[in-house]
């Protein structure tokens, strides 16, 4: 049957298949999966059906969980389902494998992935998953992008991101596009968005600090220990002192520019001027505006020195560490961005367009070029309170 905008479908008469509430249905080729609430809005049930001769031949109804407001999506024999808890605002998902012959689903565990209400979900050929839901207490829509592992029956969801105001979200996706609809929060109409489904990845190549005026050595020295050495003999002696001092150091990296929502990267950054045993830290950042990463580490500072003490004298050794508090240095992350739309690798020009359209404020680095990649500079600030050099002062007493 050819269908165009003027075609009126001759829909067949509805046939009762079960009892319950809040049904949701999905189809792939001639396989159908349906989920619904029980009449008391506590139990969740599903059917698997097979289409033949313009009819759905349903399997039995099976209980698979408790909850409310279920929604389902399938691709080939993989099914994903989301629902809200019947007792609170927790949101849960299942991944299952469909056996079309027995008309049953082998479900994985139920996983709590967020809080909210009115969840909906969609999966595409690449096992990429898109989920939308409404906020707990406000008419605000949020979404997740995830990657599904059908072996473990788990979804690796990214962070939850605010979309816009609205209620009753509905979502579908394929390899190329994400289309969502919702009702306005003030009931003024129905709205939709159609978004290019590009999966971007980033690699931080370097963390480059600006040139700054460093604190003068000894300007803020902190006394961390002393030792008195006596030589009652009539000959000169050499005394070896060795001491380890522990000090808590705090480091903070904050990005002040955005890249692309949901992108993450791990990189290793050196700590400017650090003279102790630890010289770099691994950092896991979501590359969006005002992302902050901080860590407090306890480090050991070694004092080791041979000291000459004259006959019948005493000396006192003072151990110092140069301390800097709230030392701020601007930096930028040189970051390589690549991406795919479905199985097609995106060109440099397409990547630049996507970053601009997604609200990225990162500067394009024209000094680095590579096919199917774009290089950007993400600016930020480093703030540290930590020890620098160690030194010893000797005084006669």
Report on the architecture of this protein.
The protein has 397 residues and is mainly beta. Helices cover 3% and strands 63% of the residues. It contains one helix and 28 strands. It has one helix at residues 348-357, and strands at residues 21-28, 31-37, 43-52, 55-58, 62-66, 68-75, 78-84, 90-99, 104-107, 111-115, 117-123, 128-134, 140-149, 154-157, 161-165, 167-173, 177-183, 190-196, 199-209, 221-231, 237-255, 264-270, 280-286, 292-309, 313-341, 344-345, 363-364, 374-396. The strands form six sheets. Strands 19, 20, 21, 24, 25, 26, 27 and 28 form an eight-stranded antiparallel sheet that branches. Strands 1, 2, 3, 4 and 5 form a five-stranded antiparallel sheet that branches. β8 and β9 (104-107) form a beta hairpin. The chain is elongated and about 115 Å long. The N and C termini lie far apart (105 Å). 28% of the residues are buried. The model has no long low-confidence stretch (mean pLDDT 87).
Structural descriptors:
397 residues; mainly beta; eight-stranded antiparallel sheet; 1 helix
Secondary structure layout:
Blueprint: E1 21-28, E2 31-37, E3 43-52, E4 55-58, E5 62-66, E6 68-75, E7 78-84, E8 90-99, E9 104-107, E10 111-115, E11 117-123, E12 128-134, E13 140-149, E14 154-157, E15 161-165, E16 167-173, E17 177-183, E18 190-196, E19 199-209, E20 221-231, E21 237-255, E22 264-270, E23 280-286, E24 292-309, E25 313-341, E26 344-345, H1 348-357, E27 363-364, E28 374-396
Antiparallel strand pairs: 1-2, 2-3, 3-4, 3-5, 6-7, 7-8, 8-9, 8-10, 11-12, 12-13, 13-14, 13-15, 16-17, 17-18, 19-25, 20-25, 21-24, 21-28, 22-23, 25-26, 25-28, 27-28
């Amino acid at each position: 049957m050819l269908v165009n905008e003027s075609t009126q479908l001759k829909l067949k008469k509805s046939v009762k298949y079960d009892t319950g509430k809040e049904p949701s249905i999905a189809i792939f080729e001639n396989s159908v999966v349906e989920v619904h609430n029980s009449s008391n809005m506590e139990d969740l049930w599903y059917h698997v059906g097979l289409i033949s001769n313009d009819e759905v031949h349903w399997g039995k109804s099976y209980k698979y969980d408790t909850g409310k407001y279920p929604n389902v999506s399938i691709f080939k024999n993989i099914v994903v389902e989301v629902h809200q808890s019947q007792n609170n605002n927790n949101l849960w998902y299942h991944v299952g494998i469909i056996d079309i012959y027995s008309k049953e689903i082998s479900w994985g565990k139920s996983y709590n992935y967020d809080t909210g209400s009115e969840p909906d979900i969609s999966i595409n050929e690449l096992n990429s998953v898109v989920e939308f839901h409404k906020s707990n207490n406000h008419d605000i829509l949020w979404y997740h992008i995830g990657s599904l592992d059908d072996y473990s029956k788990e979804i690796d969801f990214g962070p939850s991101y605010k979309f816009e105001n609205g209620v009753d979200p509905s979502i579908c996706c394929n390899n190329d596009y994400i289309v969502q609809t919702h009702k306005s929060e003030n009931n003024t109409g129905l709205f939709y968005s159609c978004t290019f489904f590009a999966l971007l990845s980033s690699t931080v190549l370097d963390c480059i600090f600006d040139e700054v005026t460093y604190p003068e050595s000894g300007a803020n020295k902190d006394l961390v220990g002393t030792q008195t050495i006596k030589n009652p003999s009539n000959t000169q002696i050499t005394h070896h002192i060795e001491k380890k001092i522990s000090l808590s150091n705090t480091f903070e990296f904050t990005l002040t520019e955005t890249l692309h929502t949901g992108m993450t990267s791990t990189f290793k950054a050196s700590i400017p001027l650090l003279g102790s045993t630890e010289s770099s830290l691994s950092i896991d950042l979501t590359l969006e505006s005002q992302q902050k990463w901080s860590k407090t580490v306890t480090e050991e500072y070694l004092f080791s020195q041979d000291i000459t003490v004259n006959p019948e004298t005493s000396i006192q050794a003072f151990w110092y560490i140069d301390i800097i508090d709230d030392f701020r240095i601007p930096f930028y992350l040189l970051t390589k961005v690549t991406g795919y739309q479905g199985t097609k690798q995106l060109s440099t020009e397409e990547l630049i367009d996507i970053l601009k359209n997604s609200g990225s404020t990162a500067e394009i680095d024209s000094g680095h070029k590579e096919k199917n990649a774009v290089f950007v500079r993400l600016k930020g600030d480093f703030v540290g309170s930590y020890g620098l050099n160690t030194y010893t002062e000797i005084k006669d007493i």
